[in-house]
Amino acid sequence: MTIRSITITGEPVLHAVAQPVTDFDDELRTLVADMFETMDEAPGVGLAAPQVGVGLRVFVYTYEDDDGVLHRGHVVNPELWITPTSVEELDLESESEGCLSVPGERYPLRRAERAVLTGVDVDGAPVRVEADGWFARILQHEYDHLNGVLYVDRLVDPHAHAARRVIKKAGWGKPGLSWLPGTDDIDA
Questions:
Q1: Per the domain annotation, does 121 fall within a domain?
Q2: Helix, coil or strand: residue 169
Q3: I need a labelling partner for 7 at 20 to 30 A (CA). Which of 70, 105, 146, 183 fits?
Q4: Mind listing the pLDDT tens digit for each residue in 10-37?
């Protein structure tokens, strides 16, 4: 297993729709194993293949819920269904999220409270995950990556404006930028 570099916003693979996986082989198994290792080292709660420069519809996740149950897995060629989102005012603390491709930043974003994820694993076996709360947020965030959407693309002002300023000041938003978990300092 290898820790892979994480691409930063501006890298074209992050802003394109990922392609379906058609080959369920050792290369896919290696990619998923590397993604778990990279996510853990970052540390993160999810990681999509485009974030390591691979334009395929694959992501990994890990989340321990309030009952101490560990939800850890991967999904290939996922589909996601979500409940409607609330129209109440954003809670700046409980609805803030971050992204390894916009390192060191957190902004509030409204997500659906519940999600159902289906797809297959690296062997083509069916996967179905039902999630609520923070776990549902993780699945929505990673699924967005497969459609070329970063969470900062979904922000509303004033948070969208603040994110654009930070990205510009950091020199991000252009191809060729990445960081290696465990090695690079990512403090913004």
A1: yes
A2: helix
A3: 70
A4: 999 999 999 999 999 999 999 999 999 9
